[in-house]
């Protein structure tokens, strides 16, 4: 009888331990580092939004807003996204997302490839004030060892890292293309932009961290509203 009771107790303990491990595995956060992907189905996944490249006199007129929401009609409303929207009163607005990733090798160069899916409704060759709503708004992606921070200097908001200007690349970000969905297209459509054929290298800091940066540099002086549905980053350490 004692042997039977001992076996039953051991079996119960093993099952409880296995169940606890399963639950812990289910609730465990995604592992840091690279490769990395977020589809925003559960939450913002640590991404935060902001806007720069405008003056303090335009604080209210930029009408910047961001939110985690469903994809717009006629796209699949069951899919979540991060929406960014602003009125480009400065002719150079950069609205962006940033996120810190950890668990990398310290002080190491990484060759990064971005694959970004977003919903846009702007025709590539459309005409607008200052430029095309589709062809003059440039999607950029990059990374830096330090956090991209909004900086106010002489009444103008800029970014603390080098993202370049409009179509031009910077040290910390490169242009992946514009947000145009086609010459005569209308309504929101999902588009994908990548730097598969364009090299970009970022160096981690001494804690093994990188700050990812994704955003749009706009030459179109009007309202732009975009929905980021997937951000994927793959990499290999380089010498």
Description:
The chain is globular and about 45 Å long. It folds into 2 domains: 1-30; 34-238, Jelly Rolls (Sandwich), CATH 2.60.120.200. The chain has one helix at 2-27, and strands at 36-38, 48-52, 54-55, 65-70, 80-87, 94-101, 109-120, 137-144, 150-153, 156-159, 173-178, 189-194, 201-203, 210-218, 223-238. A hairpin with a 2-residue loop joins strand 9 (150-153) and strand 10. The strands form 3 sheets. Strands 1, 4, 5, 7, 12, 13 and 15 form a 7-stranded antiparallel β-sheet that branches. The protein has a 5-stranded antiparallel β-sheet with strand order 2-6-14-8-11, with no helix packed on it. The longest helix has 26 residues, at 2-27. The chain has 239 residues and is mostly beta strands. It is built from 1 helix and 15 strands. Helix content is 11%, strand content 42%.
Helix-strand string: HEEEEEEEEEEEEEEE
Give the terminus-to-terminus CA distance: 66 Å
Backbone structural class? mainly beta
CATH class of the largest domain: Mainly Beta
* Shape type: globular
- CATH fold node name of the largest domain: Jelly Rolls
Question: With helices defined by DSSP (H or I, 4 residues minimum), what is the helix count?
Answer: 1
How much strand content do the residues show?
Answer: 35-45%
- Tell me the radius of gyration: 22 Å
* CATH-defined architecture of the largest domain: Sandwich
Question: How helical, in percent, are the residues?
Answer: 10-25%
- E-strand count: 15
State the low-pLDDT regions, or none: 1-31
Described by strand count, sense and barrel closure, the largest sheet is:
7 strands, antiparallel
Count of structural domains:
2
């Amino acid at each position: 009888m004692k042997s039977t009771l001992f076996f039953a107790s051991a079996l119960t303990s093993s099952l409880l331990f296995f169940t606890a491990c399963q639950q812990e595995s289910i609730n465990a956060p995604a592992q840091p580092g690279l490769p990395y992907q977020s589809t925003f189905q559960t939450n913002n996944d640590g991404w935060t939004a902001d806007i720069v490249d405008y003056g303090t006199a335009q604080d209210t007129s930029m009408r910047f807003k961001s939110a985690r929401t469903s994809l717009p009609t006629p796209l699949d409303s069951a899919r979540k996204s991060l929406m960014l929207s602003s009125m480009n009163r400065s002719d150079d607005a950069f609205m962006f997302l940033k996120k810190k990733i950890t668990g990398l090798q310290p002080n190491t160069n990484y060759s990064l490839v971005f694959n970004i899916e977003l919903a846009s409704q702007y025709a590539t060759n459309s005409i607008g004030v200052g430029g095309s709503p589709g062809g003059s708004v440039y999607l950029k992606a990059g990374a830096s060892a330090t956090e991209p921070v909004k900086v106010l200097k002489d009444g103008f908001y800029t970014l603390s890292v080098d993202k370049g200007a409009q179509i031009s690349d910077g040290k910390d970000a490169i242009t992946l293309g514009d947000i145009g969905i086609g010459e005569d297209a209308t309504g929101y459509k999902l588009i994908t932009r990548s730097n598969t054929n364009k090299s970009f290298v970022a160096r981690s800091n001494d804690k093994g961290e990188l700050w990812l940066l994704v955003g749009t540099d706009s030459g179109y002086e009007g309202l732009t509203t975009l929905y980021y549905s997937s951000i994927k980053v793959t990499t290999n350490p380089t010498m």
